[in-house]
Design goal:
The protein has 126 residues and is mostly helical. It contains six helices and no strands. The protein folds into two domains: 51 residues, Arc Repressor Mutant, subunit A; 45 residues. The longest helix is centred in the middle third of the chain and has 14 residues. The radius of gyration is 23 Å and the shape is rod-shaped. It comes from Staurois parvus. It holds the Pfam family HTH_SB.
Length: 126
């Protein structure tokens, strides 16, 4: 029998996807009238994950990962880091000059309005 301390290496990280080989047995256990707690214990996955898989299967008829909703971000993580670094160096720069600097340094082409919107989302105001 495995205890929680010996099972730490098998736990999922927050961003890690559960494989199809584990999703199938979750649905099989559900169809076999097993409780969420029993399925969780047998497969060594969190109860919230088991519940989420069963809910998705009931609503969508599939357990496959769905594409993310919403429009993609204008800037990548690298671009956002570069924008933060630029603003921290000199807070007196205008959005127009920041947009030109990002174009020169990173090759990111964006309008001053987008720069303002991204800065606002990062907590820079003014």
């Amino acid at each position: 029998m495995q205890t929680a301390s010996t099972n730490i290496g098998e736990r999922m990280g927050r961003s890690q996807e559960l494989s199809d080989s584990k999703r199938g047995p979750v649905i099989g256990g559900h169809l076999g009238n097993k409780s969420i707690r029993d399925i969780s214990w047998l497969l060594h996955i969190p109860r919230s994950t088991v519940s989420g898989i069963i809910t998705k299967w009931k609503q969508l008829g599939t357990t496959a990962t769905q594409p993310p909703s919403g429009r993609p971000h204008h800037m990548t993580g690298r671009g956002q880091r570069m924008l933060k670094r630029t603003v921290r160096r000199s807070r007196q720069l205008s959005a127009e000059s920041i947009a030109k600097d990002l174009q020169t340094w990173c090759g990111l082409q964006m309008s001053p309005t987008t720069v303002r919107r991204e800065l606002h989302g990062m907590g820079f105001h003014g």
